[in-house]
Design goal:
Layout lengths: L10 E4 L9 H28 L6 H18 L2 H10 L3 E3 H34 L4 H4 L2 H27 L8 E2 L6 H7 L5 H34 L4 H35 L2 H25 L2 H11 L5
Parallel strand pairs: 1-3
Antiparallel strand pairs: 1-2
Length: 310
């Protein structure tokens, strides 16, 4: 994608976390480790779900899709940062920056939609267990994932096309480790009112609707669990939702924290550091959160790695 007619620069400088040379090896090693753990951990979940017939259910189908999105999500930002540290360069071209904005927005939206879909799946499983297999059929599951992709792609195309129409004059330094949408809008020297309005409007509509759906689903789930007389039944019902609740809390708390702290302090460096939580840490922790609390996943993983299963 070529810069607009008023754009005077062809590249940006990603400032990252620190300009101290002695800290670069530490940052490189830390992010490389987290990236490899994230990729291999999520890939292991995908392999476990696809290879075990017992995991061919809606819950694990959505989990495999979430793992795939998390791999793509963290791969959008971390490899470029690692490459810049290794080559001792901070440069990212205009085209690469716009591309990074597109894919980051795409996979962030997909994360939100898939977490909402997974909450709905647990709502049906616990609140309407007798009708679960009828409601959560293969067609509906595929349709929910397809709609998540369509809405995320449309949102990403809209946001990226609006950013690509902005003019960037003399300011080319991005105080972040990737080209975040908000940072790009702030750097523009043309009028950004429409961009800012659209960015926050879509964030409220999509993010707010997604979070509202999750909260509604779990309020109904909590009510159903409270009505179960058996202690064992309560524990079993809650354990199926605990891992998903952990992921939802981690993802939404960190991403909301980034925007709230950014709005309050206007500190781009603090925003960059906090962004690590939902762009790198959350995708890395997802495999551990799900596998450690799920016997079926642990059993499938053991089969893949060659450990005998009792």
């Amino acid at each position: 994608m070529e810069p607009g007619n008023d754009t005077q620069i062809s590249k940006f400088l990603l400032l990252g976390f620190s300009e101290e040379p002695e800290l670069q090896p530490l940052i490189f090693g830390l992010f490389l480790s987290m990236y490899l753990i994230s990729v291999f951990g999520n890939l292991l979940i995908i392999l476990a779900v696809s290879s075990d017939f017992h995991l061919h259910t809606p819950m694990y189908f959505f989990l495999a899709n979430l793992s795939l999105v998390d791999i793509c999500f963290t791969s959008t930002t971390v490899p470029k940062m690692l490459w810049n540290i290794q080559t001792q360069s901070k440069v990212i071209t205009y085209a690469d920056c716009i591309t990074q904005v597109y894919f980051f927005t795409l996979f962030a939206g997909l994360d939100m939609f898939l977490l909402t879909v997974m909450a709905y799946d647990r709502f049906v499983a616990i609140c309407h267990p007798l009708h679960y297999t009828v409601i959560m059929n293969h067609r509906l599951c595929g349709l929910l994932v397809l709609m998540s992709w369509i809405m995320s792609v449309l949102n990403s195309l809209l946001q990226t096309s609006m950013v690509s129409g902005l003019s960037f004059c003399t300011e080319e330094e991005i105080p972040h480790f990737f080209c975040e949408l908000n940072e790009m809008v702030q750097l523009a020297c043309s009028d950004t009112f429409l961009n800012t309005l659209m960015m926050y409007l879509i964030s409220v509509l999509l993010g707010g609707a997604s979070l509202a759906g999750i909260l509604y689903s779990y309020s109904k789930i909590a009510s159903s669990i409270h009505g179960i007389s058996s202690t064992h039944g309560k524990y079993k019902a809650f354990s199926t939702c605990a891992s998903h609740l952990s992921v939802v809390s981690l993802f939404y708390c960190t991403i909301l924290g980034v925007y709230l702290s950014s709005a309050a302090t206007q500190s781009s460096h603090s925003s960059a550091v906090a962004s690590v939580m939902y762009t790198v840490v959350t995708p890395m922790l997802n495999p551990f959160i799900y596998s450690l609390r799920n016997r079926d996943i642990k059993r499938a993983v053991k089969r893949i790695v060659g450990v005998s299963v009792m």
